[in-house]
């Protein structure tokens, strides 16, 4: 129940984000969700796409630095304390969150939070053991 995320390294200058998204669009690749983190000189665009292998090939063909990372996507209940309850499970399991980002995914029962852990398998086991729904490729890209 892990997802493969692409991390694209971009120089922080006007037009680079647009150009990168255009590469995917021109290849017929839809972005399901994304997050952008930046510093003064560069940015990291993190994207989830259905065909990550094709997206990786598109980026490499265009000399864009890209890295694959396993991430875990979990449904967070849409209520006060929903995220806190999941973070408590993660803390109890002794897991460190490297980063996270969220999206709604059209769910009435909550949002989806994408987590990056050092040990994603342990995270999946800990979350599922406590009844937290972990989203896989089949559901995310249905």
What characterizes the major β-sheet? 7 strands, antiparallel
Based on secondary structure, the structural category is alpha+beta
Integer tally of domains: 2
- The arrangement of helices and strands along the chain is EHEEHEHEEHEH
What would you call the shape?
A: globular
Q: Helical region count?
A: 5
Percentage beta strand: 35-45%
CATH architecture of the largest domain, by name, is 2-Layer Sandwich
Write the CATH fold name of the largest domain: VC0802-like
- Looking at CATH, the homologous superfamily of the largest domain is VC0802-like
Which residue ranges are poorly predicted, with pLDDT under 50 across at least 5 consecutive positions?
A: none
Residue-averaged pLDDT, rounded? Answer: 92
Helix-residue proportion: 25-40%
As an assembly, this protein is single chain
Please state the CA-atom Rg, rounded to the nearest Å. 16 Å
DSSP, total strands = 7
Query: Could you name the CATH class of the largest domain?
Result: Alpha Beta
